[in-house]
Design brief:
The structure holds two protein chains of two kinds.
Chain A: H1 12-32, H2 36-47, H3 53-63, H4 70-96, H5 101-106, H6 125-138, E1 143-144, E2 150-152, H7 153-156, E3 189-191, H8 197-205, E4 210-219, E5 231-241, H9 246-261, E6 267-274, E7 277-286, E8 295-296, E9 299-300, E10 309-318, H10 320-325, E11 334-341, H11 342-350, H12 357-360, H13 363-366
Parallel strand pairs in A: 1-4
Antiparallel strand pairs in A: 2-3, 4-5, 5-11, 6-7, 7-10, 8-9, 10-11
Helix pairs in contact in A: 1-4, 2-4, 3-4, 6-11
Chain B: E1 2-3, H1 5-8, H2 18-27, E2 31-36, E3 43-47, H3 58-69, E4 91-93, E5 99-108, H4 117-124, H5 133-145, E6 149-153, E7 162-166, E8 172-174, E9 180-182, E10 188-191, E11 196-199, E12 203-204, E13 217-224, H6 226-236, H7 241-246, H8 255-270, E14 273-281, E15 290-293, H9 294-301, H10 307-316, E16 320-324, E17 327-330, E18 338-341, E19 345-349, H11 360-371, H12 393-405, E20 409-410, E21 416-417, H13 419-425, E22 443-444, H14 449-460, E23 467-479, E24 482-494, H15 511-522, E25 530-533, E26 540-550, E27 553-561, H16 563-568, E28 575-581, H17 582-586, E29 604-613, H18 618-627, E30 633-642, E31 651-660, H19 669-685, E32 689-690
Parallel strand pairs in B: 4-7, 20-23
Antiparallel strand pairs in B: 1-3, 2-3, 5-13, 5-14, 6-13, 7-10, 8-9, 10-11, 11-12, 15-19, 16-19, 17-18, 21-22, 23-24, 24-28, 25-26, 26-27, 27-28, 29-31, 29-32, 30-31
Classes of the chains: A alpha+beta, B alpha+beta.
Chain lengths: 370, 692
């Protein structure tokens, strides 16, 4: 701890030395101050009126100085007072500023503790899949169309070439709106069983050429279980123009499936039946989990049940009868339509094992897609 | 439907194994869903599309095999003795529109017993355990040829004739299943001279069925109108193997063959003597040949198919194409005369078992599917149009993006709600379903609220307490005889408003959180004025809810779910809801961002601690301040709302924080003081005062 020396030698060299000592002492002491109380001790030690070092400076040095040196010592003492005051002032601002070392030290956090995360909403997986599918077709020139969920018999069936009283209607498990018996059949209301009615609505609105993609919700009289739901979603597509061919249908869907599931995915088509298309086809894609091999490291692929193929779409060339309903000239124009189940694709994509999860609103499920 | 590949092999000489056979059939649209059993006992479980009734039997599928492999189909030719007994059974078809053909044959002196093993085993393919040898013979032929037949006890038919007619009002018939059926004049029936004896194409009568006592039988093989069979079978709720086929269109040309095949089997397994063959044709259903143009085939399919393949495929399927070649003379400047062969076309005779084929496109499909869909190239069509977005696409995706950013998870709830909920949560009558999936939820949702509450409850029951969910979807209301369908948005929040952090505890969500989120959504749109009018509908807390009014239109409402409703649903925490009619919102233009010059001068802030009467609404204060027309008053913020304590009853205190700033100059103290005086005067006009 520094104490002010009594001076005997007042030569400039000796004074220089003593001043230097004092300066370095105040600097080092003020540098060690880290809080208010320490600072107060420092301040009093140096600047207290009665016995502070500055007062001693006056007594020990200035008063003790012989006449001829008085002037020189006086100047030096004033300079040292200024320095001390400055140093102590600086120490104060250093400990009170937020950038003070002590403050900074105090504010240290455990950076390995988890961050506080503001919750982000999760996009519903069905909406996400639907947007992805729509996006692929939008890039191929398809405009988006929508239609009502409650449809007339005409749009849901008749104009799609399901004649009244036809067995093909049985496959649709229709939910009927009550109290429609007094109306003519074609005006009776049902919950649409597919998004295909929007094809008709789109063609009624606009002459060919036409490319539309239709995302939407549909309903059927299905008992809910892990793989069935009375509520589900479809994406339907329609292209009509001169010279649209079955080869174009194949190429379009092959391209779309590669865009959705990866470039290595293959497609294959085999005959099926839909009243509103002819020829009609079901489309399978090679399994994107096992790469179509049916096995993963020797074990059966659970996604495609070891077949290497996954059934994904229904499609076909628009039946001329359908064109008849919308006054398109089927001799001049041809077209194709396709449809796919959004739930099925989403379940396959994410490995979801229960379709009911989509409709429960369970945040443990939903938040997985945030 | 089940198929035995072993049985198929009786009709076609197949070299492939069963596994390969199943694959090849599936690739031409005769889908084998699964293969069960092994060796001779192998069974294919089939999924035959509804249009292909001709393939719902062994012979029909054998025909497909003959087309797939280009091999011969062995014809079925029943070997019958010359008939011995002339039993005269005149057949009268009174309603030719519903019955085009009725073929019958009697077999006399049969012995009723169990079928021999080779018949019984075949029936087991469809898990038929056999009835008696006569009924089994008809079922066997159904599986073999696909044509439904029926056998009557000839001695129980009165009056010695068969009449095919519509039922008469009041007539009844006890069917084979023992149920007495009331008949409708639209039902087609088979009758004897006295009474109905069968529901045409659906089920025979109980009183004329084959029993142990039967000696003489009459075999029926007919063609009934699909729509008529379907109408009656649906009305009576009777779906039978026979009706399934008739309503999809049986083979008009095959009645005689099926009848003879049954007779052949009956003679083989029940003995007896063959009676005469009766074949009444009321209408000829053979159709005109279909014209097939190869140019049309290429126009639709996009690819040529070699002529030999076309002819081969069609012949194997039982079609008869006749080539029609035309030559035309084309004139052009450079070559005076050139002879051009126009595309080939065919006149195609369609077999009677293919009622689904009547147009050129139908024939094209036949060729394409057997040729193999995967033998067609993948091409992309050219397109010259543009992509048109839905008019509300931007608004919808903005709403969604903002809700997600605000922390709401998107959910999709049920369309079906209870009648009680429909009544509780909507002012409009609900749309009921004719055939609801459950009695608890028989109507279409009139609002998204019940679905939302159901989802909240679901989460509460799984210990999730801090929830933010939204749903966008259609809601429905009954408008006289129509159904109104509108887009709706509902969001709900409950639990913590903020995240629990290491240092700060979260606080619970309140009215102003939900209102703030609603305001954030509304700010997507360029609405002139948004008002919040208390209260919302009666299922909201009357003191903590409001309607959202844009201009004069109520576009939504928000607030706390009424505590009573929350209690009946056993909610233990406050639930905050907001609903929007999104179609009202979508009708608004989107708000475009506008740039405003930034001030270079300092702002001046003033706090006013006010004491206000409880009747004074913030909105009133706001309006008064606006009426002062001080352009430099840039921002008004209400802070530190306080009641009770030192604040007298019937009053509340509020800290009003005002910010003044000019775009042109530094504000002077006197100016700000003058404005403050104006503000205080306005507050005093409301009966308020400054707190001291």
């Amino acid at each position: 701890m520094y104490t002010l020396p009594q001076l005997a030698d007042f030569s400039p060299a000796a004074l220089d030395n003593a001043a230097l000592e004092l300066k370095s002492a105040v600097e080092s002491e003020s540098r060690q101050v880290s809080n208010d109380s320490e600072w107060k001790v420092l301040r009093d030690r140096w600047m207290a009126r009665k016995s502070g070092i500055l007062t001693q400076l006056n007594d020990f040095w200035l008063k003790a100085a012989p006449g001829p040196s008085k002037r020189d010592v006086g100047q030096r003492v004033n300079e040292l007072k200024r320095i001390v005051e400055q140093e102590i002032e600086a120490a104060l601002s250093r400990i009170t500023s937020s950038a003070s070392a002590s403050r900074i030290d105090h504010e240290r956090v455990d950076v390995t503790l988890p961050g506080t995360r503001r919750k982000l909403g999760a996009e519903h997986p069905l909406i996400r899949t639907m947007n992805e599918i729509v996006g692929v077709f939008k890039a191929m020139g398809y405009s988006i169309a929508e239609g009502p969920e409650v449809e007339t018999d005409y749009y849901n069936f008749e104009s799609l070439n399901f004649p009244p009283n036809h067995p093909a209607r049985d496959t649709q498990d229709t939910l009927f709106i009550a109290g429609q018996q007094s109306k003519p059949l074609r005006e009776r209301l049902v919950l649409r069983t597919h998004t295909s009615p929007v094809q008709i609505r789109a063609m009624e609105k606009q002459p060919p050429p036409l490319r539309v993609i239709v995302p939407g919700k549909v309903h059927r009289a299905e008992t809910a279980d892990a793989t069935h739901s009375p509520i589900f979603h479809q994406v339907e597509g329609l292209a009509v123009d001169t010279n649209i061919t079955f080869c174009d249908l194949k190429g379009t869907l092959d391209h779309a499936m590669k865009a959705l599931f990866g470039a290595s995915v293959k497609t294959r088509f085999y005959p099926s039946f839909f009243p509103f298309t002819e020829p009609s086809a079901d489309v399978q894609i090679s399994c994107f989990k096992c790469g179509g091999r049916g096995r993963i490291e020797g074990a059966r692929c659970s996604l495609c049940k070891a077949s290497g193929w996954i059934e994904l779409l229904g499609c076909g060339m628009v039946d001329p009868n359908v064109f008849g309903f919308v006054n398109y000239d089927s001799k001049k124009y041809s077209g194709f339509a396709f449809g796919m189940g959004v739930e099925r694709i989403t379940m396959l994509k994410y490995g979801i094992d229960d379709i009911q999860h989509f409709f429960e609103g369970d945040i443990r499920f939903l938040q997985q897609f945030a | 439907m089940n198929i035995s590949p072993n049985w198929l092999r009786e009709f076609v000489d197949l070299e492939v194994d069963n596994f390969r056979l199943a694959q090849d059939l599936t690739h031409v649209g005769i889908a084998v869903e699964s293969i069960v059993g092994e060796g001779d006992a192998t069974i294919f479980e089939m999924d035959i599309t509804t249009n292909r009734v001709d393939a719902m039997n062994h012979y029909g599928i054998a025909r497909e095999c003959s087309a797939v492999y280009d091999i011969n189909l062995i014809p079925i030719k029943p070997k019958l003795p010359a008939f011995i007994r002339e039993a005269s059974f005149p057949i009268e078809i009174l309603d030719a529109d519903l019955c085009a053909r009725y073929t019958a044959r009697a077999v006399c002196d049969v012995r009723i017993r169990k079928s021999p093993p080779h018949i019984a085993q075949r029936l087991l393919i469809e898990e038929h355990h056999g009835v008696n040898n006569i009924a089994d013979a008809t079922n066997y032929v159904l599986m073999e040829l696909g044509h439904p037949t029926h056998a009557f006890d000839l001695d129980l038919l009165e009056g010695g004739k068969i009449v095919v007619r519509r039922a008469r009002k009041g007539e009844t018939l006890k069917t084979l299943d023992g149920i007495m059926r009331e008949l409708d004049p639209e039902d087609l029936i088979i009758a004897d001279a006295v009474k109905p004896v069968a529901l045409a194409g659906i089920m025979g009568g109980f009183d004329t069925m084959i029993t142990a006592k039967t000696r003489n039988v009459l075999i029926e093989s007919a063609w009934f109108d699909p729509a008529a069979v379907r109408r009656t079978s649906r009305r009576l709720g009777m779906h039978t193997d026979a009706s399934h086929r008739f309503e999809r269109g049986a083979d008009w040309g095959g009645t005689s063959l099926a009848c003879d095949r049954v007779a052949e089997l009956v003679l083989e397994i029940a003995g007896g003597k063959l009676g005469a063959h009766h074949d009444a044709i009321a209408r000829d259903l053979r159709r005109e040949a279909v014209h097939l143009d190869r140019a049309e085939l290429k126009r639709i399919l996009g690819q040529e198919i070699p002529e030999t393949d076309i002819v081969r495929i069609l012949r194997r399927l039982g079609f008869e194409p006749t080539a029609q070649r035309a030559t035309a003379v084309a004139l052009s400047a450079s070559t005076p005369i050139a002879v051009v062969e126009t595309p080939d076309s065919y006149s195609v005779e369609v077999p009677t078992w293919r009622l689904d084929v009547e147009r050129e496109i139908d024939v094209i499909e036949e060729i394409a599917r057997v040729y193999g869909f995967n033998n067609f190239a993948n091409t992309l069509p050219a397109f010259a149009g543009g992509v048109v977005e839905l008019p509300h696409a931007r608004a919808e995706s903005s709403l969604r993006a903002r809700l997600l950013a605000l922390g709401y998870d998107e959910a999709v709830s049920t369309t079906f709600i209870s009648a009680a909920d429909a009544q509780r949560f909507a002012g409009e009558p609900a749309v009921a379903l004719e055939n609801p999936l459950s009695e608890e939820a028989p109507v279409l949702r009139t609002t998204l609220v019940p679905g939302m509450l159901q989802m909240l409850a679901w989460n509460f029951n799984r210990d999730a307490k801090d929830l933010r969910l939204f749903e966008m979807g259609h809601i429905f209301s009954a408008i006289r005889n129509r159904v109104g369908e509108r887009g709706s948005l509902c969001f709900a929040g409950t639990g913590a408003a903020t995240e629990n952090s290491m240092e700060a505890k979260s606080r619970a969500l309140d009215f102003f959180d939900i209102k703030g989120d609603a305001e954030d959504l509304l700010s997507i749109f360029a609405a002139e004025s948004v008002r919040f009018d208390a209260p919302g509908a009666d299922y909201y807390h009357p003191g903590r809810s409001a309607k959202i009014v844009l201009g004069k239109k109520v576009v939504g409402q928000l607030g706390q779910l009424h505590p009573e409703i929350a209690a009946t649903r056993k909610f233990k925490q406050d639930v905050w809801l907001a609903e929007f009619d999104i179609e009202h919102l979508f009708a608004l233009p989107l708000r475009e961002s506008r740039y405003e010059k930034l001030s270079r001068f300092p702002q001046v802030e003033r706090d006013f601690s006010l004491l206000l009467d409880s009747t004074v609404k913030y909105e009133m204060l706001q309006r008064l301040l606006e009426a002062l027309h001080i352009p430099e008053l840039r921002q008004v913020q209400a802070r530190e709302l306080f009641r009770g304590g030192t604040v007298p009853e019937g009053k509340y205190s509020m800290l009003l924080h005002l910010t003044f700033q000019s775009i042109e100059r530094t504000l002077r103290d006197e100016e700000v003081a003058a404005w403050s005086q104006k503000v205080i005067a306005a507050i005093e006009a409301l009966g308020g005062s400054l707190r001291t």
